[in-house]
Amino acid sequence: MNYILFDGPARDQFLPFTFTRPVAEMRIGILTIREKWEKFLNTTT
Q1: Residues of the domain holding 34
Q2: A Pfam family name for this chain (predicted)?
Q3: How many folded domains does the chain comprise?
C-alpha cells in the first residue's frame, strides 16, 4: 500500500519554514513528520 504526504492549504501557516522545505520535512522533536509516519506505518521511503 502506498501513502502520499502532501502539503495542503495549511502549508502557509508554517511560513517562513515551508519556503525551504516540505511540511513533512519539518522537525518535531528529534524526528521529522515524515520519519514519525514511517515509524507509525512500519515502512520506509
Answers
A1: 21-45
A2: NTP_transf_4
A3: 1
First CA to last CA distance, the chain: 12
Task: Identify the residue whose cell numbers are 507509525.
Answer: 40
Tell me which amino acid residue 32 is.
Answer: T
List, for residues 2-43, the tens digit of each pLDDT value. 777 778 888 888 888 888 888 889 999 999 988 998 899 887
Q: Which three cell numbers stand for residue 5?
A: 504526504
Q: Given this model, what pLDDT does residue 15 score?
A: 87
List the grid coordinates of 10: 495549511
Q: What is the pLDDT of residue 10?
A: 84
CA angle at residue 31 from 43 to 2, to 5 degrees?
Answer: 25
